[in-house]
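Regression test case RT-17, inverse folding.

Input:
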């Protein structure tokens, strides 16, 4: 149980927030004596605490569990509308990132490097006290928000989260943060605590703001439009409060800044004690030059394990080796990490392009006799575009080039290298690492959509407050990637026995753009 004081007046009622259907909760006994309030903390302790401060309402969120050893209220921080205006957040991620207890948020949709193993698109999470994504219960007006359909792996554990970017910031009236664990009351998703966002209601008037900004030394620009409106109808018996947010942020490519343009960071270490440290060479050894393993070794051509690679002409190459397409050579062992590694940042998105529209409408109607009907309507839609480096082959799903394949330099066909001890029937070759750069960079498009519909009634009976509602919410994510290759079609293409076969031995310089896989 946690409680928070709202205003300083005489205690006259206890307001209960029920999270689902109408039910009866076990509450501590309350006795009113003048300006003092005695509250029974637990049934077991039978202790009474005097509260000298007069309050109008104590809202108890969650239920007291009979027999639980609870000695006091849990700490709750409240960020009100003035705080929210001062923060100036343009999205839910920026708003909740301002919570001091919110830790590192790795579930943020910006990771295009990890590909399908990380959630992508317009998504942001909450990670109270850095306990982990998915361990914080996120509520909207005291009821659960729908989970984002995407997932990702953190510390080898699949996790899901609520997408806080679906909450329009201008419509937020307050954010209540329970910093302590509440799994005993709410379940395992509240191990780190609870964040409850209260949307504005009973608002009358109109507010609008616009923000536009650009990022220095990049082409980044952001446009944020917010609107809040409220109408009193039926002689004040009905109120409609609506908030709308539109956001657009352009992409930032890694190549736009000198610190991220190259994945090899060693040049920035010149003159330091880390100069030349290979740990800062983040470039990839999976390149269009190709690294291959023959089914057996060939003297003076492969390593003892059968490994060889493709490279340009250098002083150590013999004329016999340089007989491949475009004068390229076969050399033993792996590629040179310094001269042939691949800069993965050359075509990578640092910050995706994002366009977002979300809205929230709260309607309440006073029926009299301390009873009112209310409803919530929420809609969110976002689209995100980004890109990452070209498709690379997977070591977990190796591609084999048969000895009869047309372009196999160790095969039995017309392109077999002469002057080496290669069997007449040829050798099979396994592609150990190869990047299909002629397929183009991978284009990533993610569309997120979510809905929230709620209808309920609430009121007061003597010193009791009741609340009951029906809630329907749904979320959908469509994540598409273009220019990926099918490994099965790729293997079929490299194993053709005529010149239409795909040639992985020419640094992607000799293949037709019409090759499909």
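Golden output:
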């Amino acid at each position: 149980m946690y409680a928070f004081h709202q205003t300083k007046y005489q205690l006259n009622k206890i307001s209960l927030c029920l999270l689902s259907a109408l039910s009866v909760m076990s509450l501590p006994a309350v006795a009113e004596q003048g300006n003092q309030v005695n509250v029974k903390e637990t049934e077991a302790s039978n202790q009474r605490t005097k509260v000298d401060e007069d309050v109008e309402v104590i809202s108890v969120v969650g239920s007291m569990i009979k027999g639980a050893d609870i000695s006091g209220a849990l700490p709750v921080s409240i960020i009100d509308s003035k705080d929210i205006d001062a923060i100036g957040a343009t999205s839910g991620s920026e708003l909740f990132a301002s919570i001091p207890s919110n830790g590192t948020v790795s579930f943020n949709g910006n990771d295009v490097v990890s590909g399908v193993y990380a959630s992508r698109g317009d998504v942001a999470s909450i990670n109270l006290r850095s306990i982990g994504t998915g361990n914080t219960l996120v509520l909207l007006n005291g009821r659960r928000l729908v989970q984002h359909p995407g997932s990702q792996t953190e510390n080898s554990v699949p996790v899901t989260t609520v997408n806080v970017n679906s909450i329009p910031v201008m419509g937020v009236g307050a954010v209540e943060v329970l910093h302590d664990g509440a799994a005993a009351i709410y379940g395992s998703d509240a191990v780190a605590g609870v964040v409850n966002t209260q949307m504005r209601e009973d608002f009358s008037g109109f507010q609008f703001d616009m923000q536009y900004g650009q990022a220095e030394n990049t082409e980044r620009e952001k446009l944020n439009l917010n609107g809040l409106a409220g109408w009193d109808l039926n002689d004040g018996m009905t109120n409609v409060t609506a908030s709308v947010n539109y956001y657009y942020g352009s992409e930032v490519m890694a190549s736009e800044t000198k610190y991220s343009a190259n994945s090899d960071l060693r040049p920035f270490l010149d003159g330091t004690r880390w100069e030349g440290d290979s740990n800062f060479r983040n470039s990839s050894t999976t390149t269009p030059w190709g690294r291959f393993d023959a089914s057996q070794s060939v003297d003076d051509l492969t390593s003892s394990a059968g490994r060889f690679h493709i490279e340009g002409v250098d002083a150590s190459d013999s004329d016999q080796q340089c007989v491949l397409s475009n004068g390229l050579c076969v050399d033993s062992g792996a590629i040179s990490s310094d001269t042939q590694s691949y800069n993965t940042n050359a075509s990578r998105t640092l910050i995706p392009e994002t366009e977002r529209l979300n809205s929230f409408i709260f309607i309440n109607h006073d029926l009299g006799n301390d009873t009112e009907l209310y409803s919530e309507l929420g809609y969110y839609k976002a689209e995100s575009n980004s890109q990452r480096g070209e498709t690379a082959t997977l070591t977990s799903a190796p591609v084999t080039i048969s000895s009869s394949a047309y372009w196999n330099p160790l095969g039995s066909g017309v392109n077999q290298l002469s002057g080496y001890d290669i069997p007449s029937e040829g050798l099979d070759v396994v592609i150990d690492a190869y990047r299909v750069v002629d397929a183009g960079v991978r284009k990533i498009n993610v569309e997120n959509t979510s809905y929230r519909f709620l209808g309920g009634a609430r009121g007061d009976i003597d010193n009791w407050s009741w609340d009951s509602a029906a809630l329907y919410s749904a979320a959908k994510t469509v994540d598409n990637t273009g220019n990926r290759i099918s490994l099965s079609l790729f293997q079929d293409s490299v194993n053709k026995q005529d010149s239409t076969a795909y040639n992985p031995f020419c640094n992607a310089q000799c293949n037709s753009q019409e090759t499909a896989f």
